[in-house]
Amino acid sequence: MSSPLRTSAxxxxxxxxxTPAPHAASPHxxxxxxxxxxxxxxxxMAAHGGQKLFGWFGGGxxxxxGAFFTQSGYPNGEALAVVAGLTxxxxxxxxxxxxxxPLAGAAVVGTMVNALAxxxxxxxxxxxxxxxxxxxxxxxxxxxxxxxxxxxxDRYLPWVRSHRxxxxxxxxxxxxxxxxxxxxxxx
Length: 187
Prior knowledge:
By secondary structure, the chain is mainly alpha-helical.
């Protein structure tokens, strides 16, 4: 007996050898999982941006963050604090909403690559290690590559409605390139 399957290439088809694995999650489960990951990671990054821009949640604001960036070897620390704060805020909100997800993920990845470089790779575990930054970087990269799922604003934008791996890879390449240029400015 053949079973109905929906393929990404077209409408309902019948085949006898291609049946879904009994342990495979439904598309709704994937969408819910991606939504949870997007919202938690995105709002976490947006909160970090708020720390840098406004001093919220015990952050240093532009002056304190700028002083830290200058101490870490970046020229014009206050300008970079604004750039990092805006990138984290808008990248995080973009991820949370599923809006321009490949670019939002790439923005977070670029910022976190700089955070990893500043923190150094001497230790893995908190409080001095990189585990937190690495987890945020990997989560943002994964979202850029997979797309936001169907429970996202991108679903309503015709040019990003159907996420392509190439879009995510291109966005990540751009984010890594900008991160590398920023790191080159560092003393």
